[in-house]
Amino acid sequence: MNAAKHRLAWRRWLEQPWFLTIWCVLAAFGTYACMYGFRKPFTAAGYGGADAKAWLVTAQVLGYMVSKFIGIKVIAEMSANGRARTLFGLILAAELALLGFAVAAAPWDALCLFANGLALGMVFGLVLGFVEGRCLTELFVAGLCASFILADGVAKTVGAELLLRGIPERWMPATAGLLFLLPLVLFVWMLSQIPAPSEQDETARSVRRPMTAGERFGMLRRHGLGLVAIVLAYLLITVLRSTRADFAPEIWAGLGFNAQPSVFSQSEFWVTLVVVVANGALVLVRDNRRGFFTGLGLSAAGLGFALLALAGHRAGWLPPFGFMVMLGVGLYVPYVAVHTTIFERLIALTRERANLGFLMYVADAVGYLGYVAVMLARRLFPVSGDFLTFFTTASASLLIGALLCALVAVGCYARRWRSE
Q1: Residue 359 in 3-state DSSP?
Q2: Does the reported pTM lie above 0.90?
């Protein structure tokens, strides 16, 4: 009897909008931040030099990319009941892969990191399913996306600190994963307690359902060039964002900055703060059409800000820390806008029988395919000069390309809805 009363009281707390908002943001942020503890700490080590490390990073990203393609079907069709169990199973598989990496010799160590990426690639879609289709989705997903900005730096800091404390390079990733395991259990439990969207949520943002193969292909066909332009912009941004994240130690070294372990967290803290505020504020835009175009406009502004950071670096008036923060803000503002607003409002506006996970996994699969292609091309066709020169040169071209794609998307959807 008392247990039933406690459950009823607990549910009443979760019905309070302010409490539910804090709960959802903490649960989503915490779960995905802990996932990064199984994925990113290994990038804080050198593993014998940039060339050897690049192959290991490529192996993990390749597994992550394959998982995104699998997730187009799995996440789109996933029911609410199976999310938490699936999430736990994937995390445990990722930790087992890191234990394998600790004892395996080349080339089997790369295969272990491939398995690690394969397990972790679907975690984001599972978490997203708990918080999409709500009046406050932008705010919830901004909290979720804050985790992969801030946690990227925190995970590297944890990895670097473990190395300083004498943990061997090969055992450091698995050790870091164990540190994140217990808090992950707590945050996944919090996700499982989130109630289903209310009638008000469904009226404002549409009902989100699992999708069949025919519904998935039909949606892609109906949105044509506009959706292609968004995905291409996302691809180019993903390549730059992932390069900046995975090779942060090399970029900091090229900038001549004495990068202590804490610098990864410090720079990403400021990036996270700006990006979360900018994207979370879009929850204030109630009209779905206005929210969709505001998201695209914010993305274009972010890309312009990143180009300004490159210009400042080349002109010599921007210090290393300021350059990394400005570039991070410029890349993450549009990257997160796709997650929080653009696809969410597109579904709400068109009332498609769809879910946010499907569109995100289409974009992510293409984005990581591009990143893997760049990684392999750089290994097979080495470029002259240091890594920083390669990175800044590529950044200018890719940012301009992404900005053009964003403008094409604006034109396509404006023309489409004007004609309708």
Answers
A1: helix
A2: no
Neighbour tally for 212: CB within 10 Å? 12
66/369 Cα distance (integer angstroms)? 8
Q: State the amino acid at position 256 in one-letter form.
A: G
How far apart are the C-alpha atoms of 412 and 279, rounded to whole Å?
A: 23
Q: How many residues would you count in the chain?
A: 420
Tokens encoding 30:
């915490």
List the helix and strand counts (H, then E) for the chain.
17, 0
What is the residue whose two structure tokens read 């199984």? 38
Residues 59, 111 contacting (CB under 8 angstroms) = yes
State the fold for domain 22-195+211-419.
Growth Hormone; Chain: A; (1.20.1250)
Complete DSSP assignment for 97-123: HHHHHHHPPTTHHHHHHHHHHHHHTTH
CB 173 within 8 A of CB 278: no
CA 284/CA 271 separation, integer angstroms: 21
Q: Which helix (H) or strand (E) holds 61?
A: helix 50-77
Q: Going residue by residue through the chain (420 aa), what tens digit of pLDDT does each one get? A: 555 555 656 667 777 778 888 899 999 999 999 999 999 888 887 777 667 777 888 889 899 999 999 999 999 999 888 899 999 999 999 999 999 999 988 788 899 999 999 999 999 999 999 999 999 899 889 888 888 777 877 888 888 889 888 898 889 999 999 999 999 999 999 999 998 898 899 999 988 989 999 999 999 999 989 999 999 999 999 999 888 887 787 788 888 876 566 777 788 889 989 998 999 899 899 999 999 999 999 999 999 999 999 999 999 899 999 999 999 999 999 999 999 999 999 999 999 888 999 999 999 999 989 888 887 776 666 656 678 888 898 899 999 999 999 999 999 999 988 776
- For 241, the enclosing helix (H) or strand (E) is helix 213-246
The rounded distance, in Å, linking the Cα atoms of 143 and 280 is: 8
Instruction: State the DSSP string of 264-277.
Output: HHHHHHHHHHHHHH
Q: Which of 195, 197, 155 is nearest to 176 (CA)?
A: 155
Domain ranges in the chain?
22-195+211-419
